[in-house]
Each structure stands twice: as C-alpha cells, then as structure tokens.
Amino acid sequence: LKQVFNKDKTFRPKRKFEPGTQRFELHKRAQASLNSGVDLKAAVQLPSGEDQNDWVAVHVVDFFNRINLIYGTICEFCTESTCPVMSGGPKYEYRWQDDMKYKKPTALPAPQYMNLLMDWIEVQINNEDIFPTSVGKCKE
User: Which of this chain's residues are annotated to bind Zn(2+) (predicted)?
Assistant: First the structure.
C-alpha cells in the first residue's frame, strides 16, 4: 500500500515553473492557499493585480500534475488485459479521435487511451500560443 501512495511516483515528470518567474510565485501562492485549510472558493480566486491568464495557466499545469500523480498510482493495475476498454462505468465508453492517426472515434484499451490523452494535453500545455511562458503574452 505504501508504494501506491508514493508522492514521487507519477505517470510523467511533473511540469515545473522556473524559480524567479511570476508563474513560480503564483504557483507557490496557490499551493500555500490549498494547503492552509482555507475555503476553496477563496483559494482559487484571482489575486488582485495578477493576470487572469497566468493564474489559469498555473492551475491548469497544477491540475495536470495532480492527474499524473493519480494515474501513476493506478497505471500498474490497469493494463490492456485488465482494462481493455476506456470507460466511465458500464454506460459510457470513451473512444479516441485525433484526426491524424485516429481519423474516426476508435475504441482503445484504457492505458493506450490515457497515454494518448496525456500526450495530447502535454502538447497543449507546451504550445506557446495557448500557454506562453512569458508573463502577459496570453492570447485572448
């Protein structure tokens, strides 16, 4: 059980913010708020004087890192043989379509679906047009 809850075990390396940058400072502020037992509504409120796009970007990356951590704890138990379908219970099946390799919605084993999904998300997060690393460069 100890290895399941290992904080260092992630599906992908955690994305980090460069120390000394505005986003690093916002990330520290968000972490402090979330770990202080404060009201969640107040914790995610945009701090006065901060850029809304930068604040959202920090939380998107943090959410991605947390999902990686959660998936990292279950990925060894969810294999192509134990999880042959990506589903949300018995009523819902998720199919992958990326208009490149998978032109039509395609049923995939859960681990393969998750790998494609996490790769896709990582591409979005690393896209400078969507998540620029320079403060104040976000497109509206």
Answer: 78, 83
